[in-house]
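Justification of computing resources. Each target in the renewal requires a structure prediction run like the one illustrated here; the chain below, 285 residues long, is used simply to show the kind of job we budget for.
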Amino acid sequence: MTRLADSATHRFRKGVKLGKFAYRRGTASLRALPDFLVIGTQKGGTTYLYKVLSEHPDVLPAFKKEVHYFDLHYDQGEGWYRAYFPLRARLTERTITGEASPYYLFHPHAPGRAAALLPDAKLIVLLRNPVDRAYSHYQHQVTQWAAEGHETLSFEAAVDAEEERLDGELARLMHDDVVHSPNFRSYSYLARGHYVDQLMAWNEVYDRDQMLVLKSEDFFADEPRTLATILDFLGLASWAPERSVSIPNKREYSSLSPDLRRRLVDYFEPHNKRLYDYLGTDFGW
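Resulting structure tokens:
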């Protein structure tokens, strides 16, 4: 009986949400486009950051955090995208709106698509130690029991299988701009840690002063200071949450073995070196 009641409640809530979105689609032409995008990286703290920013009195958040327009839903069109944002009439000279979809940083078509629609947008990037990011990404895929990309291999086996799993996927995405690649999205544990290549792709279409690149560990260790930097970048008034915001998607799992960690540290060393040279900042990974 409880399971039936829960199912009915779920269907009701889903129906209400679909009804609200239908209204938003009908008023899409009256809606704003985002002033900022949090573009990545996945498992770098983007969900938490967006949740904090959404509580700022001068930020009107999107209908949901991860809209995934420039990567997964581009074929839906601009009206569909606008439906996720507030009515322009609700915005003032002080208020802004934005979204956070961490696949944007890695997706090959996202930079060009975003620049075509949002040439003046400000971009925020949180970069996490690529070893820790990869292991967290893996743990996320392990939990996807009934979803695309459910991971059944051990982490070491998944790392070893990545080259084969991703073979040809980037070329397929580049050849067909509406095709999706579950493997490219789900099993890119190491590839997503080649941060400098992703930043360079975005900087081909956005000026570097439009992008704020931060170290995730700095955000986790000193949230007030990092938040102040982000607010200044976005042109928002100084502010701090009145209450602590719970960290979403935080999971506990076993530590990475020292041998595998050392192997991955060595693997990422040249990629990190190129990143530090590009940014002029050593993140100490």
